[in-house]
Q: What sequence folds into this?
């Protein structure tokens, strides 16, 4: 049986729950809600995990409990524990360079300026794994980057946030069922919000 990992990047703790940087968590939480599963603490590596089936695949939804810039430790731990190949590991994270609601699916690439992805790349030692970037930008001119990504969504964004999270969860489920390339064709044009 195929085992797949879907990792949402974010920061643990109540104060970060609805921050822009935590959109990866919101997406895996939406996927867990759809499947009727709950997250449980892992003891082998620093993360929460929810188990489900999506299509033919057994899927582990993962939320690292490290802070964002140490996410790679949890991703590597999960891949090692269940012997999951990089190509079967999907990472979902925020992108300040994409307009709010934009979705970009890629089969490989760099981490750009995203510290969570830089950590993942450092730990797993390959760029060849699918990722889904979710637009949280643009950052207002003169705004502090850290304050912006750790801040909550603006009121007008909050109205569209649910649709963005649902559409991103659809994209991840599409990767799991029809693959990254076909999913890129369907989702990379879309922008919600």
A:
């Amino acid at each position: 049986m195929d085992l797949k990992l879907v990792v949402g990047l974010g920061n643990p703790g109540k104060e970060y729950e609805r921050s822009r940087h935590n959109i990866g968590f919101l997406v895996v939480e939406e996927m867990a809600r759809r499947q009727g599963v709950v997250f449980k603490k892992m003891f082998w590596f620093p993360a929460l995990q929810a188990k489900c089936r999506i299509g033919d695949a057994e899927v582990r939804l993962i939320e690292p409990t490290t802070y964002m810039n140490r996410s790679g430790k949890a991703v590597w731990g999960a891949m090692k524990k269940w012997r999951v190949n990089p190509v079967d590991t999907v990472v979902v994270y925020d992108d300040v360079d994409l307009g709010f609601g934009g979705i970009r699916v890629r089969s490989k690439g760099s981490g750009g300026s995203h510290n969570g992805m830089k950590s993942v790349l450092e730990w797993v030692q390959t760029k060849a794994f699918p990722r889904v970037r979710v637009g949280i930008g643009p950052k207002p001119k003169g705004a502090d980057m850290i304050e912006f990504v750790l801040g909550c969504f603006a009121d007008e964004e909050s109205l569209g946030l649910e649709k963005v999270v649902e559409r991103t969860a659809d994209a991840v489920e599409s990767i799991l069922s029809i693959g990254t390339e076909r999913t890129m064709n369907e989702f990379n044009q879309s922008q919600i919000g």
Notes: The first helix runs from residue 23 to 35.
